[in-house]
Amino acid sequence: MDTIQINDKRFKVSITEDRILREVKRVADQINRDYEGQEPVFLAVLNGSFIFASDLLRAISLPCEISFVKLASYQGVSTTGKIRELIGLNVDITGRPVIVVEDIVDTGLTMAHLLETLRAQRPGSLEVCTLLMKPDKLEVALDVKYCCLQIPNDFIVGYGLDYDGKGRNTRDIYTLA
Ligand code: 5GP
User: Fold this and answer.
1) How far apart are CA 153 and CA 133, in angstroms?
2) The model scores a pTM over 0.85
3) Cα–Cα distance between 16 and 29 in angstroms, integer?
4) For 27-75, what is each residue's pLDDT tens digit?
5) Atom 15 in ligand 1: residue holding the nearest Cα
6) Catalytic residue among 55, 103, 106, 172
């Protein structure tokens, strides 16, 4: 399917499944090398990262744990700037190597807030692994160590990301047409 319709909006394919999986594997290999001898805790940020997290984790060969947290600041197609509370962190991350798994870093406000919350628990190390990043939209200084793909400032859906709750179940990534 080259284009999909979700509610009032039409989207066209911009990143194919092949390309996504290649980049996910590249980043997983990098993490496997960087964390050799360690047991990282992956914290996947729901809902958008659920497909990315499942592909990433299956390419990780280290002994590791994954936990799912929730923190959202997005509605429709524009950032509201509203930061919500972190919920669901049910592992003790004190002293442990933590990798936050996110679908997309846009302004970076969500991630900056999340990192601040997590740092208060004194993890041994704390890094970000994101599927996508819109570097031109970044509003805060953020060190993103692992990034699969950088994209322009367009609204995208698919491979876990939604538009008004829909479109998460596609294999490719689509951009607003
Ligand atoms: P930030 O705080 O970095 O501006 O926003 C991050 C969150 O906004 C992401 O976790 C994601 O849920 C949402 N987001 C940002 N850009 C997009 C986009 O292009 N498409 C979708 N579906 N969500 C986005």
Assistant:
1) 9
2) yes
3) 20
4) 999 999 999 999 999 999 999 999 999 999 999 999 999 999 998 544 5
5) 106
6) 106
